[in-house]
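User: I've been trying to design a sequence by hand for this structure and keep getting stuck. Would you show me what you'd pick, starting by listing the structure so we're on the same page?

Assistant: Good idea, let's start from the same input. This is the structure you sent:
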């Protein structure tokens, strides 16, 4: 193995983004949307570009420990919340909730009263039963 190949291998394995970065990105996005901040607002608050926030949320760039602390503060979340169980593979529900449709459902439900939420859940269950048969 040539020196360049060895260096490249070490570089890729130690710095490559992976599943953990994707999960963290999903949590960052969900937390940002929950408090109603745009990517631009969050970026300005922590001193990066909105493109960098996009990369963090998509899991394309790793988040340094310093930046993670800044993000947690800006998103009014604990670092523990953002990192807890990130090594666990996401289940189907978590993957859905990270989609545009999942986020839209969450935002819509949060704007409703508890009674309305319960009615929507009943309707969704009926629709799901009809889809199976």
């Amino acid at each position: 193995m040539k020196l360049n190949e060895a260096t490249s291998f070490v570089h890729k394995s130690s710095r490559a983004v992976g599943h953990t970065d994707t999960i963290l990105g999903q949590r960052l996005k969900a937390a940002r949307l929950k408090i109603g901040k745009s990517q631009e607002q969050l970026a300005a608050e922590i001193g990066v570009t909105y493109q960098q926030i996009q990369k963090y949320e998509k899991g394309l760039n790793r988040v340094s420990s310093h930046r993670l602390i800044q993000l947690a503060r800006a998103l009014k979340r604990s670092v523990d919340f953002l990192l807890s169980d990130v090594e666990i593979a996401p289940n189907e529900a978590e993957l859905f909730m990270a989609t545009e449709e999942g986020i839209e459902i969450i935002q819509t439900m949060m704007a409703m009263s508890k009674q309305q939420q319960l009615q929507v859940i009943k309707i969704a269950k009926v629709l799901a039963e009809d889809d199976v048969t």
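That's my pick for every position. To get oriented when you compare it with your attempt: Residues 25 and 56 are 5 Å apart (CA to CA). Residues 1-14 have pLDDT under 50 and may be disordered.
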